[in-house]
């Protein structure tokens, strides 16, 4: 069983007010209406169970003696539920009061795909989102015309009703949200035909989002106040635009650096040459030195991706692969044999390479040895 004191982050001798403040702080961060993350929802259940036990003197005493307390939502208490959660969110003493009709809306998430060019230099994009907006017919009130909500005749405006039940512990009084007004304490007698009394409607709209240079897959851009409008026309949550970067045709990104493979013929590697390559900045020249070996990496500064929140850029690494011909004409084969004879290259010329800066060293690096 979890240590409920650790769950709430309080000392074992914490007062009831300290426990309530700790739970209120955590609940505001983790409540599903505010944080839709499944991990946060599970955490919210844990802190709510901890608060249920530690806020009740009998359950807390039983827990301190090594007991299990009571299962969340089980028999024996009945007094902790919706009302206690509302108490933790909005404070209050003996009377918790009705739920507010006007509440903050949820955050929204949309994913957009960008290419490497946009990720490197940034761009402005227009996106279409469908979210809850304030109902223009009732301006968020939920009522048709000038009609105002009337006090609920069941709960008399309290938003909750009390119920007495018998249990093994005797008579237990519990509170629950009023079913007639859904806990609001008032009833909209003439709801708006457009939004059915919710004060908001779903609609499509177009927004412009600025994609900063240096973003990559998984990064999120926060657009404050562009998420879901809350019930009753309450303030909107935030919109998060998540970036998905599409693969490039021949460039591979690694952080702020780019990598590309360049194949050259054997003669170019032997004699050296200058090759034109296409980068994100246009055409660039790459000098291939005479005697370049297959696997050589040539760095080009400031041709990588722009670093996020900086004007600096990474490097472009050109990986050279020397292509050895597999088929030779008789004339070509004769020329190669003459070349080998001139160099004195024979089968006896082959030897084991154990140099750290040679193929042996690259092999060790590749194998992680």
Which consecutive residue ranges, at least 5 long each, have pLDDT under 50?
Answer: 68-95
Helix content: 10-25%
What would CATH call the class of the domain at 4-90?
Answer: Mainly Alpha
Overall pLDDT: 84
Number of strands: 15
Q: Which strand order do you get reading across the main beta sheet?
A: 10-11-15-14
CATH topology type of the domain at 4-90: Helix Hairpins
- Kindly, what is the distance between the CA atoms of the first and last residues, rounded to a whole number of angstroms? 45 Å
Q: Helix count? A: 9
H/E topology pattern: HHHHHEHEEEEEEEEEEHEEEEHH
The largest pleated sheet is described as:
4 strands, mixed
Shape: elongated
CATH superfamily of the domain at 4-90: DnaJ domain
Structure class: alpha+beta
Q: Which architecture of the domain at 4-90 per CATH?
A: Orthogonal Bundle
Could you tell me the strand content as a percent range? 25-35%
Radius of gyration: 35 Å
